[in-house]
Specification:
Elements lengths: L2 H23 L1 H13 L1 H16 L7 H7 L7
């Protein structure tokens, strides 16, 4: 088995354990865990990135030049 596959399987196992623990802990504990995660700036940034990715993952991709062309030029303000 490759190292990459081992890492993926290990990560998946960890995710299953963490989710099971959160589900078993009950609403109050889950809420407190989420609050503390959101208080950590790095974790909050990761959570926001995952949410955005989940919301947009089925959108058709666009060329970077097109996206950049639509950005407001700071000197235009």
């Amino acid at each position: 088995m490759s190292r990459r596959r081992d890492d993926t399987e290990s990560a998946e196992a960890t995710v299953r354990v963490l989710i099971a623990a959160l589900e078993a802990a009950g609403e109050k504990v889950r809420r407190e865990v989420l609050v503390r995660m959101l208080e950590d700036e790095d974790l909050r940034d990761e959570i926001e990135a995952v949410i955005l990715w989940e919301e947009r993952k089925h959108e058709q991709s666009r060329p970077l030049r097109e996206i950049l062309a639509r950005q407001v030029n700071p000197s235009d303000k």
